[in-house]
Write a structure and sequence with these properties.
With 327 residues, this protein is of the alpha/beta class. Helix content is 34%, strand content 16%. It folds into two domains: 183 residues, 3-Layer(aba) Sandwich (D-Maltodextrin-Binding Protein, domain 2), CATH 3.40.190.10; 132 residues, Periplasmic binding protein-like II (D-Maltodextrin-Binding Protein, domain 2). The longest helix is centred in the C-terminal third of the chain and has 24 residues. The two termini are 24 Å apart. This is ABC-type nitrate/sulfonate/bicarbonate transport system, periplasmic component. Pfam families: Phosphonate-bd. It comes from Microvirga lotononidis.
Length: 327
Amino acid sequence: MAIPNVNIVLRAYDQFCPLIIGAIESPGVAINVNFNTPLSNEFPEDIHAAEVSFNRYVMARANGDHRLVGIPAFVLRGFRHRNYIVRRDSPLESLAELKGKRVGSNSWSDTGTMWARAALREAGVEVTDVQWVIGHLDEKIKMKPKTSFDVEPPKGSHFLNNDETLMGGLRAGTVDAVTTAFMPPSVYEVNGEFRRLVRDFRTAETEYHRRTGIYPGFHVMAFQRSFAENNPEAVLAVYDALRASWENWWLKVKNFGEASPWAIAEAETMIREFPEDTPPFGLHQPAHRKMLETMCHEQYAQGIVSAPADPTKLFSDFEAIAKTAGR
């Protein structure tokens, strides 16, 4: 019997390089990793699984769209207090100060942007308290083409013309702050033109985590439904391989944590402060369940779904596959 091929799209994150370079065994299937294809929740039939936007996946479930079968592999996570930027000479210093301000966004439906708004709401600033400005980030980073998984920004948002950019507005003073996934190069320059709104973002994010218990998930892996239903063993094999890759990387981090001066201290922070989030797989950990509950609540509170998804059913298909296999 031929071994089935499983074609997946996954960015080359450090923790999944062991899988990408072939250091992880996957008995019964041949996993082919494409790490160059742009990410999307819509992928062709020859791609069986892909790293997808978690926000878009959950919105789809809330709207009754079950075309994807997600697995609880939280392949990308992070905090978003750090992702608000302002001019270096801006008087703004905190998320709470953005009430009544003009805030730019170049992708309303991205998971990171949703969590950025969640951080804003947790700081006492509702989505409706801000004048949102929507447009291209700069001349190089354009807005993503809209897909069937996307949602419109709120009524009253100001849309820039195609020849305008959010960074240009920030520079000119017509935009007060911008939230985006990737920082412009000048943020990393000493005395650069732009800076992070929250200068000590590590302290702000640490306190947020201690208050809420949430380590936000950005991307998960999801399968084409037809493939998952016809090849349930392959779904479990990919999940196992991702986890094995993470474990391989985690061991190396602890044994050879010298990529930066204090890399091992970061590993110890994960062990000490994020015990229920490590590793980033599964649904039994209370922290993961809390994150799912909060995500569903935030989508509804932010007005991007008309009714919240059921957090206990986001991965029900995967759970059924695992149960059938005796797990």
